[in-house]
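Problem statement: downstream parser choked on a complex file, so we are re-checking the raw output for the MGD run. The parser issue turned out to be on our end (a line-ending mismatch), but while we're here, posting the original submission so the record is complete.
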Amino acid sequence: MPESPILFAGSCALREEAKGSLTHCPYCGLQCPMELVTLPSGSQVFPGDPEWGLCRKGWTAAELLDRNDRLLTPWVRDHKRAKLRPASWGEALRKIAESLGKLRATYGLSAVGVFGGGSLTNEKAYLLGKFARVVLGTPHVDYNGRFCMSSAAAAITRSLGLDRGLPFPLEDIPQTEVILLAGANLAETMPPVMRYFQRQKERGGRWIVVDPRKTSLAEKADLHLAITPGTDAALAMGLVHLALREGWVDWEFVRERTEGLQELALVASQFWPERVESITGVPVFRLREAARWLGRAKTAMIFTARGAEQQAHGVENVLGYLNLALVLGKIGRPFCGFGTWTGQGNGQGARELGLKCDQLPGYRSIQDRKARQEIAALWGIPETALPREGLSAWELLDGIGTREGIRGLVVMGSNIAVSAPYSSRVIQALESLEFLLVVDFFLSETALLADVVLPAAQWAEEEGTMTNVEGRVVLRQKLKKPPPGVCTDLEILHQLARVLGWKEGFPSDPCEVWEEIRRATRGAPADYYGVTYERLRRGERLFWPCPQLGHPGKARLFLDRFETPTGKARFFPVRNFGPVEIPDSQYPLLLTTGRVGAHYQSGTQTRRTRELLEAEPEPFVEMHPATARSLGIPHGGWARIWTRRGEIRVRARWSRRILPHVLFVPFHWSGLGQANRLTNPALDPVSKMPEFKVCAAAVEPCSCPQEPESPDKQNCPEEGVTE
Ligand SMILES: Nc1nc2c(c(=O)[nH]1)N[C@H]1C(S)=C(S)[C@@H](COP(=O)(O)OP(=O)(O)OC[C@H]3O[C@@H](n4cnc5c(=O)[nH]c(N)nc54)[C@H](O)[C@@H]3O)O[C@H]1N2
Ligand SMILES: Nc1nc2c(c(=O)[nH]1)N[C@H]1C(S)=C(S)[C@@H](COP(=O)(O)OP(=O)(O)OC[C@H]3O[C@@H](n4cnc5c(=O)[nH]c(N)nc54)[C@H](O)[C@@H]3O)O[C@H]1N2
Ligand code: SF4
Ligand SMILES: [Mo]
């Protein structure tokens, strides 16, 4: 049993010396190129391409490499009431093997679940999925992308047959005439991409932004549709209705490349503009204007992001916008198309390579016999031993502690105690687990609840690939050694597999894992076979599908055919819309949640970054002055917000940019201002996406709360404490 981390030098034939100090940002799906420089004062990043900027999260990303509170050793808890204490790798691994072994022996293989993340590289995501299914033998493996991309993925797959976030490269954006963006706040969430939108505008293009808030993006838009949260499907169907009635349909395209218009038209006839205005709050004249702009343009692009997707009708919302793109014929041809903004660095790759409970690597269904046979053969197990579909992210958390449910959980790359909906329930569930293992760089709120925490290397200390928002594979280079005592996630998986009895099949060398991914995805919808580290190092721009070594990959999808069995895109009549919780006298407002520019996700990383914390030190509620005044909540004053699940206390920020019946709270904080204490875990029936973006809420002024005890203090491990 190793007492210190061991580097496993894999024998990858294609390994070359890393060149230069170029890599990619550890955060969002844009994967901006960056350069890492080590100065006497510490590490610092610079844009990797002088033409391409970084957002402030990117600029400050290196600070965390040198943080003195990063995890440098495993931590273990001797029993549930004990505090975490530092431990050796040997002891931690022994404890994991014993605890998981006991759970599996007592309750069966499905008693252990695995929760992964979209920030993991392709190699890590693939190996974690394989670890769950082969070593643990559990069907229950899912990831935080279920909370992110799953509604868009499900809708696009249904309609177009193949889900890749953007079906075209970013550089196509300036060439399109009209852009519709629904529920995407790109000026805050992916700032460098705005250059393409700006260029499109300079060429005479126009933007239509659908958002309940006049975000900094909506402010620059030519048309802002201030939608009531939860009603995108009705808005999109209203636009389809207008397209049909006012002659904007591209009949030739519809005839040749789509199927199912008749049924769609029938349903669309019920979405006349006045009705849509009453549902969505968007005035008829604006709806008409939007339909006219999109209809008249020769080219247009339609995008959604989490605003329209994170809802219990998220799939229907996205299908509504897909229907619109299809009737107008603004898809499947140059400088047109439908796209979704993949949020996390590798939200795209992680969902294709086996971190979803219903999928095998390469974007193949886990129920597909042929795929099962191929993957089982590659993994060296009988097909019958390969688990079938397991529980999705929320169901997995919800299943903890139930009679047949999950008793042990392995978390790598997610901070669910902060980011999952209805967090009081989640925290309780995590506390009730018989065994929780968390792999992270920091003691996140989730790690603080763990029985064992393993310290992972950060982005600049490991090698791997990420699949960005365009479906392009980028190489993350190892530019630094991890601090002593810290292992890469792949080394950790290798070790976990080993102590659980698997000596082979879990290499810690990323290039070796990549070679297996190439084989695992060969011939599959998300085909990575033609992508090699060598090609990426040479600077080739490679998109999936990339079926052969000489192949450039497919930068633009659907130009000749859609990827459905018939080659035609499918219309899906959309009938359901509206939030699960309708405002009433007790909960008269609609709460929506989302992001601010300075913080990332659950905040584990950005709340530890000095400049970002100074920019946005605390959570807040954005509310309209009219609403605030009528309730007696001053700008900067404290507000108590409550929903059917819990309450928070935050300061109020008055803003005329939000609809009067809507509240907005960012979700990057824990404790008293944690947005997810409020959110509704109602799921979309198809995508299993929770309704993060809308629930009924009430608000009142409150006194300044007692300084909430920071969760880091509540449960702080004490150095050297053994009991
Ligand atoms: N700064 C920053 N950038 C990030 C992240 C981060 O945490 N911080 N995270 C990354 C990740 S993982 C993701 S998924 C992306 C998310 O990127 P976005 O989807 O752009 O971000 P959100 O703030 O979640 O939601 C976008 C907008 O949806 C609006 N909205 C709310 N309800 C509705 C509705 O019912 N309909 C419509 N049409 N709009 C609605 C909100 O007002 C908000 O402005 O950002 C990525 N980039
Ligand atoms: N209310 C509300 N809740 C939301 C959303 C919302 O809009 N509103 N958005 C949802 C969305 S879109 C998302 S994507 C989720 C994201 O929420 P989370 O899944 O919590 O994502 P992160 O905060 O990025 O958590 C990643 C954790 O893993 C660690 N980590 C990062 N990279 C690695 C790695 O490579 N290896 C290891 N071992 N650890 C790593 C980080 O330190 C951090 O603690 O939140 C969802 N929750
Ligand atoms: S936009 Fe995304 S990838 Fe680019 S620097 Fe910012 S966080 Fe990093
Ligand atoms: Mo996300």
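For whoever reads this later: The domain at 589-701 is CATH 2.40.40.20 (Barwin-like endoglucanases).
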